[in-house]
Predict the structure.
Amino acid sequence: MPLRLATRPTAAVADYLEILKPRVMSLVVFTGLVGLVLAPGHLHPLLAIVAVLCIAIGAGAAGAINMWYDRDIDAVMRRTASRPLPAGRMMPGEALGFGVALGIGAVLMMGLAVNTVAAELLALTIAFYVFVYTIWLKRRTPQNIVIGGAAGAFPPMIGWAAVTGDIGWGAIALFAVIFFWTPPHFWALSLYRAGEYAAAGVPMLSVVAGARETKRQMLLYTVVLWPAALAPWLLGIAGPLYGAGALLLSAVFTGWAVLVWRDPTDRSARRMFAFSLLYLFLIFSLLLIDHASGAWL
């Protein structure tokens, strides 16, 4: 599909919301909230709301700048061609200006209202997603998701730092869960979208190394995810309820990777991608439930 650039500011409110990537933002906000809740110490409820809001706005800002930069390849891929920029409903400058303004505002608000460590981590997250992942890695290496996935793993660290003013082992454990979850999650998507990524010139592992190697690495990462998922329990920031649930969920995730390995079609990859979203949501939900049950006892 050819790229159709808007020649005048015709974007609607819905278009501005769409370039914030609200579905991605919702998971980011949730993991950031869990980091904030699990962190030792206390943060005034109003400041906690401000911190979560800043994380949400920062995530949206990064998404908007990503859509501005990737508007050319978004026009080629079927699943992204209807986004506001490639569809011609928004001018590139609008998206860039909107994203930059939101990003600066979110970082300043976090620094002034919460603390500088959380603000610095938020700024690092936005910069990493934009400059390291979007501009540098995404179009250059099949390891784009592995390295660039760190951007999506920072939010619980930001939430943790909002309470404590530092980065503890608990925050690093939460970071590790998302970091090692990211490759099999996105590689599952890339298996059944390989043609689109190839047409757009994005060197996803499935495009460069083929389906078999992608499936092998997906399986390996789900195995590495086991100790990462258990780390919050091993470090004492979560109890046995979480530990048992994380063990079960990780076993199911690995089971899906085995099915993908054995399935010559893309059916299992599609189902694994869907389950991967549920996996991360349930892992962080278990952390909240476990923490709440411990507080009640």
